[in-house]
Amino acid sequence: MDKAYLVALIDSLNNKIDVLNKINEKNVEQYKLIKAEPFSVEAFDKNSNEKGVLIYQLNQLDDGFKLIYDKIGDELSKNKAEYASEIRKMQEQISTITDLSTKIQADEARNKAALEAYFARERGQIKGSRSRANAAKSYAKAMQNRT
Predict the structure, then answer these.
(1) Which H helix or E strand runs over 20?
(2) Residue whose C-alpha is closest to residue 117's, from 44, 41, 43, 34
(3) Which of 8, 18, 61, 130 is 20 to 30 A from 51, alpha carbon to alpha carbon?
(4) Distance CA 65, CA 76 (A)
(5) Residue 109: which of 48, 53, 31, 45 has the closest Cα?
(6) pLDDT (tens digit, 9 = 90+) per residue, 34-70?
(7) Residue 135, CA atoms < 13 Å, CB-side half-sphere
(8) Which of 106, 107, 78 is nearest to 1 (CA)?
(9) DSSP characters for 61-72?
(10) Within a 13 Å sphere around the CA of 66, how many CA atoms are in the beta-carbon half?
C-alpha cells in the first residue's frame, strides 16, 4: 500500500479537527450574540452562515476520508502491525474528534435553549405591548363615549 494514502487520512483528520475547532469558536460567538443586548439579527445570521460553510467543509472532509479509507481499509486491517503507529495516530485523532463533536453538540443545545428563551421574552414583550395598546384604546374609547 502507498503510504501517501495514510498521510492523506491523517491530514484529513487533522483538517477535520481544525474545522471542528472553528465551529466550536463560532458556537461561542453565537452564544455571546444571543446574550447581547440588543440582539443583532445581522450578526447572528452572519455567524450562522459562516458556521454553515464550516459544516460544508466538514462534510467534504468526511466524504474524502471515506473514499480513501474504502480503498485501503482492508489493507490496514490485514497489516495492523505494519501500520501500528499510523493507526494509533488516527485513533488519537478520532478520539479528539469525538470529544470536539460532543462539545459542539452540547453547545448547540445550549445555544438553542438560549435562543428559544430570547424569543419567548420577545413574544412576551410584544404581547405585553399589545395588551397595553388595547387597554389604552379601550380607555380612550370609554372616555370618548362618556362625553
Answers:
(1) helix 3-35
(2) 34
(3) 8
(4) 14
(5) 31
(6) 999 999 999 999 999 999 999 999 999 999 999 999 9
(7) 6
(8) 78
(9) HHHHHHHHHHHH
(10) 6
